[in-house]
Write a structure and sequence with these properties.
Blueprint lengths: L1 E4 L5 H13 L3 E4 L11 H6 L7 E4 L2 E4 L1 H11 L10 H30 L8 H21 L13 H15 L8 H10 L3 H6 L6
Parallel strand pairs: 1-2
Antiparallel strand pairs: 1-3, 3-4
Helix pairs in contact: 1-3, 1-6, 4-5, 4-6, 6-7
Bound molecules: glutathione.
């Protein structure tokens, strides 16, 4: 059975859990990281030198980096519909997965830390506003992308929707001003119907 180390509140763990739900993959999950600790345990660092979650074990194979994990799950458990085999089509999915980690993660993470893990009297209002504006810029790119289809990579739901979807949830529940992005909102409502989203993504932030 697939073993997943990582607290269920972590956005990167949630991507893995949602992918398991989409592909009907059974797993055992161990609460790890955050309030559960364990990230710096030597045995854990030997598996994942970043000391971060998630880490996944499949038989003798250990994998870290959430997007690598979800691509692996698709490759080994019949997930071609989420991660297309055709190389050109695949780039349409993967560019958004890379973009999520390289661009979107920074301002979305800054707002999580600021609003949920910093007491109000210690928040840096200017940094939080800069993060909101940066995230708004990036979500406006997604708004324009959604002119091409109902999902991030076009007509079909894919790993790109999972990678961006957990941040889509956060964008819509953070206590911030959100100018109207109608296609983004419709996409968010569309993916929120999926059982994997309901179980693993739509939960209180901490
Ligand atoms: N690029 C990594 C990032 C992993 C990461 O930053 N994980 C965070 C949680 S989302 C973490 O381990 N934070 C420390 C902790 O939870 O103790 C991935 O996508 O897996």
């Amino acid at each position: 059975m697939l073993k997943i180390w990582g607290r269920a509140t972590s956005s990167n763990v949630q991507k893995v859990l949602w992918t398991c739900a989409e592909l009907d993959i059974a797993f055992e999950r161990v609460d790890w990281g955050g309030p559960f600790g364990g990230n710096k345990d030597p045995d854990y660092v030997a598996m994942n030198p970043n000391g971060l979650v998630p880490t996944v074990q499949d038989g003798g194979l250990v994998i870290w980096e959430s997007n690598t994990i979800i691509r692996y799950l698709c490759a080994t458990r019949g997930g071609e519909h989420l991660h297309p085999l055709d190389p050109a089509r695949r780039t349409e999915v993967e560019r958004w997965m890379d973009w999520q980690l390289a661009s979107l993660a920074q301002p979305m993470g800054a707002m999580l830390m600021g609003y949920y893990r910093t007491p109000p009297d210690r928040r840096d209002a200017r940094a939080l506003e800069a993060a909101r504006l940066r995230a708004l810029d990036l979500w406006s790119m997604v708004e324009r992308q959604l002119e091409h289809g109902p999902y991030i990579a076009g007509a079909e739901f894919s790993l790109a929707d999972i990678a961006l979807g957990m941040f889509g949830y956060r964008w819509h529940v953070y206590p911030i001003e959100r100018p109207g992005l109608p296609r983004l909102k419709a996409w968010y409502e569309r993916i929120a119907e999926r059982p994997g989203f309901k179980t693993h993504i739509a939960r209180p932030l901490e």
